[in-house]
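Q: I'm a student working through a structural biology exercise. My instructor gave each of us a protein and asked us to get a predicted structure, then write a short paragraph describing it. Mine is Leucine rich repeats and transmembrane domains 1. I'm not confident about reading structure output yet, so if you can add a plain explanation after the tokens, that would really help. Here is the sequence I was given:
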Amino acid sequence: MGITGGLVLVCALLPLLSLSHACPKECSCNSNTKVVDCRGQGLYDIPRRLHPDTQELYLQDNRIRGLGSMAFREIPLVRILDLSNNSITSVSPTALLGLRTLQRLSLAYNSLRELDKRLLGPIRSLSHLDLSHNSLWGLPGAMGDSLRNLSHLGLAHNRLTRMDRSLLEALTRLDSVTLRGNPWRCDCQLIGLKLWLETYLFKGGAVDEVLCYQPEEMRDRDLQKVPYQLFHACMTTSYHYLFANIHHLESERLLRGHTHGSMPECETKQRQRPVNLRHAIATVIITGVVCGIVCLMMLAAAVYGCAYAAIMAKYQRELKKNEELAAVQGADHATADEKEPLENAIA
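A: Happy to help. First, here is the predicted structure for Leucine rich repeats and transmembrane domains 1. I'll explain a few features afterward.
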């Protein structure tokens, strides 16, 4: 009787256990592919009772306004998370906590203004991040540690005016990036992005375009085609970065040559440096020569000035000495002239 009662209890609980992770009524679920599709259902929040084995969750075209702390704690194995085309304005720094296997994240077509540097902290497997069509003013440089494995980054159509150089340098595996549609300010603050683009494109990366929005005289000009001469005032603070890029590229070329040294027939032809990079190197050399000439001219002028001052001082001393001597001699002659009539009178 006890065994029979236990079996009855188990049979009664099984439906309840399955219901606890049933597919949300607003979504369609595929247990074989572990895909949950909740697109276009007018949702205001993340659906509950998602199966913990879910690997793909599609929530685009809804009305979700924010992501709270640990918003996806029920699906720790999710690999693809699409939240595009919602009304998201805020994301908690711990919204993605626990999603260590996340590979693709889309927050495109929302109203995000900023992202916390801790948002992607625990995630190291992310390879695709789409943040296009938002209102982002920038990305924190500290976020670069979480993006080292990123192969695609979408930042098109935001409010970016510059990019943090430390973030760009952390994207060592990036294959493509979209940057168009941002109000880039092409001044000294953007020279880092221009130099990074030179290196990135030389390595085979893909980018759409970076069109200047400010200042007015540079509007709609492609940053990649803007000559370095227009950044001349900034180059003195960026020479070390340029030479670091050149040194890095030369090191890679030598490394490739050493690797293929045992098989000359397989050695790949060295890719020609971009024209802008060659112009940058020429600008550095010419500027150094001009600065050297100016320094020599200033040194010559200083030597000439010192010599002229010394000669003039000597001349003034001699002139004063001659004047004093002439004054003494004049006094002697006057005394002699006074004595002569007196002597004649006595005689």
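A: Here are two points you could use in your paragraph. The longest helix spans residues 275-346. Residues 44 and 64 are 4 Å apart (CA to CA). It's a good idea to check both against the output above yourself.
Q: Great, thank you!
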